[in-house]
Amino acid sequence: LGSVKSGTGSSVLWVHNASLSAAGTRMCVGYCGKRSFHHTVNLLVFAFPDQLTVSPESLVPGRDREVACTAHNVSPARPDVFSMSLLLGDQELEGMQTLDRDVMEGPQGDEDPLFQ
């Protein structure tokens, strides 16, 4: 996992070249005489997307199409840690939008809430 550097009153875990296998619950244990103290911590390892895929790559004028942006190899993929947006210039697109009018719809069936 890494190396531990201990000094007076502290101990530091250095994680070198963290991989996803380093993630998880770890426990810090300290001793003072016959007493022991412990505290657990959840170690998160972030893996940023190695690529983003947008499909379709081109649109045909006059035709309705769904545009999806997908991230690959992201960790953790929880919505409180990772999010994505589709932009048109510097404007964030939300719901169902066209260039000349906005029509807001909720998710349909099992639609991913990321693209609501």
UniProtKB/TrEMBL annotation:
InterPro entries: Adhes-Ig-like, Ig-like_dom_sf, Ig-like_fold, MADCAM1. Residues 47-116 form the Adhesion molecule immunoglobulin-like domain. One of its GO terms (cellular component) is membrane. One of its GO terms (molecular function) is integrin binding involved in cell-matrix adhesion. GO terms for biological process: integrin-mediated signaling pathway; positive regulation of lymphocyte migration. It holds the Pfam family Adhes-Ig_like. It comes from the Eukaryota. Gene3D superfamilies: Immunoglobulins. Signal peptide: none annotated. This is Mucosal addressin cell adhesion molecule-1. It comes from Sus scrofa.
